[in-house]
Amino acid sequence: MAASVSPVRPPVEGMVKLSHKRYRALLKKEKRKKRRQALARLRDSENTNKDEPTYEEDLNEEEQQLEAERQRLHEEWLLREEKAQEAFKIRKEREEAARKRQEEEEQKIKEEWQKQQKKEQEEEERKQQMKREREVIPALGG
Fold first, then answer.
1. Secondary structure of residue 40 in the 3-state scheme
2. Which segments in the chain show pLDDT lower than 70?
3. pTM above 0.85?
4. Distance between CA 130 and CA 94 in Å, rounded?
5. Where is this region: Disordered (predicted)?
6. How far apart are CA 142 and CA 136, in angstroms?
7. Cα–Cα distance, 85 to 103 (Å, whole number)
8. Residues 44, 49, 54, CA angle at the centre, nearest 5°?
9. pLDDT tens readout for residues 11-36
10. For residues 26 and 34, what is the distance between their CA atoms, to the nearest angstrom?
């Protein structure tokens, strides 16, 4: 069995093998460059942070805006609720007044009907009395 060995790549063109001294100097130069870039980024971020509000300040402002919006919506709801309750109260008062008028009207009609019934009954009794009197008088005289 043949051992699988990865093929050896030829060196990349343009790459030059540096001496240890030059390699260390280049490494030192790259480290300084990275350090300067990191310090510059840090300086820039500090400058922008002074001008821009911090994350916490953004959160506080956002929370305040949300609270103000919630309060505004709550006040609008309270107004709508108050109007709805007032409308409900007015409607109930109107219904109660209409119910009372209806009851009064029904009572008046009932009283008039009873009055009419009593009048008719009295009239009927009067007729009956007259009829009896007419019957009694000829019977006595005859």
1. helix
2. 1-15, 49-55, 138-142
3. no
4. 53
5. 27-68, 93-142
6. 10
7. 27
8. 150
9. 556 667 888 888 899 999 999 999 99
10. 12
